[in-house]
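Checklist before submission:
- one chain only
- standard amino acids only
- sequence pasted in full

Submission:
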Amino acid sequence: MRRISLIIAAVSALVFGSCNNGKQVKLPVTRTFECDVLVVGGGPAGIGAAVCAARHGANTILAERGGCLGGMATAGLVAPFMSSTTPDGQTMLIRGFYEELVNRMEAQGGAIHPLKAQIGSFSAYRDKGHHGLTTFDYECLKRTTEEMCKEAGVELLYNALFVRCDKHRGRITAAYFATKAGIWKIVANTYIDCTGDGDVAYSAGAPYVYGDGEGDIQASSLFFVVRGVDWKAMDAHDAACRKAGDFEGQFYMREILAAREAGEFPMWRQKIALFQNLDGTATVNMAQSDGVDGLDPKQVSDALTEGREQAAIVVKFLRKYVKGCENCELASTAEQLGVRETRRIVGEYTVTTEDAKNSVRYPDPVFCCANHMDIHRKGYVEYVARNTNDPYWFPYRALLPKKVDNLLCAGRCAAAERPVMAAIRVIPPCFAMGQAAGTAAALALKAGVRPKDLNPTALVTTLREDGVYLPE
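Returned file contents:
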């Protein structure tokens, strides 16, 4: 039976900040919860972690700072899901929980299965790296993930912003959240950091790397949606350019240069990028800011404002220069900035670029994928070539931060070198990391051991039983 205690108490206090004059600010803890597994962050990694931990018997709480699940896939308007298949789109590599979710959404008319995806308007007309995409409906994703949490017995806590944790002798003993009702405290046996930024790991003193390790950080994007696109005209233009072998014309690269010279396109993006949605609207990935520290709320605020200014400029450009977009209108902008990179933990093992280049196998694999390693720099995207066409692997040890015994990290903050994380930070691999972390947390609890001491063979066997693609 779930052991969640609700204690109204003003006796204990949380110190979470200080003023310039040296006086500390203290607020009372108004509620305390207890659980087996606490997942912090309700994006793809957090969803996979919470549902899979609960399915394997752990009393689980999922705390999310916003008001819905999905993270960048919903609040960030990031669509479609990037590839979960081999580069040719023929074999699905990321399966398990992710495939179950896609199947459930597809049954509701809320997704196109990646094995049914085709190059065209749904892939922004791109071939390279865009086979096996999953077009989906934002609201269907919110609803379906909530249903899966409810079915598994996950306790959802929305509008709960993680602020800090307590740690004693290498273990986290409590996590604290800012809410409208004051500070809430959650005590768990095991914690899973799915914040993207590694907030829990950082608070617990786990070592990490920021960006490239020398201060450089990938560009951030603000996604937005436009309506009123004539997709037949877009298709006709694409077909004509392909027939003529006109790559620059296909993506309106010459028009962008002309608009930039005329002061009508001040961003550095070089190609148009419109992904058709199920309802006929288009998700646009063309507004981008450089050098934004995703850990600095002021910089993020400025980037959100700049992104919305850019969105309006892009819409004007589309209406003037792009066939099929003459009557398009801005429908919505994301409420969450697309931050590609901040902290990555130093794990019990860190996946190296050479590992991914050469498809190195591990004794504790938890998923495999084939996503491109692409680093978004100012003015261009840098691609890191691989030495094999085989999928590359991710080990369980890369979810385990050093110096903290009862913490796992899944998603963008896991342990991988920069080029590798540039590939696996996209949504399907994050679901896979979450499934592995949640399953491992529950199995470790059952075995009475630390996550770091879990038998990896038992984890791999369980993941295979749960549909994860891990070929021998």
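Reviewer check: The two ends are 38 Å apart (CA to CA).
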